[in-house]
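Troubleshooting entry. Yesterday's outputs looked truncated, so today I'm pasting the complete records for two proteins to confirm everything comes through intact. If either block looks cut off, that's the bug. Protein one:
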Amino acid sequence: MALENDPRFNPTSPLTLFERSFYMGPAPNPQYDVSLDGQRFLMIESLQRSESAEIYVVLNWFEELKRLVPTERD
């Protein structure tokens, strides 16, 4: 919301500042900051979750590691 105070307090219509989705995090800690020069907001952008996310499970990964990176001791 924009504010005007001349000659008296007069709130105006809300303004959209950001179109993207940003990480909100747990309350009450703010998840943003303002740059030292006061000209920019610093925020963490939220990742878009994909429905096709993949998880790789490697069984016996020590054996797989030995196969991929052989040592002279074997």
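Protein two, checking that the full record survives here as well:
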Amino acid sequence: MARFIRPYKVRFEDCDSAGIVFYPQFVLMAQRVFEDWFGEGLGISLGRLHHQMKMGFPIVNLQVDFKRPSRMEDVLDWSLEVRRLGAKSLTLDIAAGCAGEERVAVKLTVVCSDLVADGLASREIPADFRAAMEKFRIPDRLKLAP
């Protein structure tokens, strides 16, 4: 099992007037990690997936637990692991920590979909994607209760 890791330095634009990361920014950061995982971890950019393959992985469930505040210039170490890999959907654990402290935990469920003229149609995850995703899957014995 591999864990996808991505550092991110908190910028001024990420913070609110109190000087801490404005909570929606964590969702944007998690989305960036997801996009980077697709491009670098799985070997296919979301742009290519959307525009050339007419396929996507829209979010159907998003849970965020804010653990501790983060401030400008903190370097957050983001990690991504596959918690569940179903026939058409997957659930990801995406977390950020800094200086040994967990800062935010994101549970993200996405569904493999064909991009069609009138919206989305769910579909099975292609075998080559599944094989690549499997490398980031948390072994069953290590999974914790939700």
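Both blocks look complete. Sanity check on protein two: The chain has one domain: 4-138.
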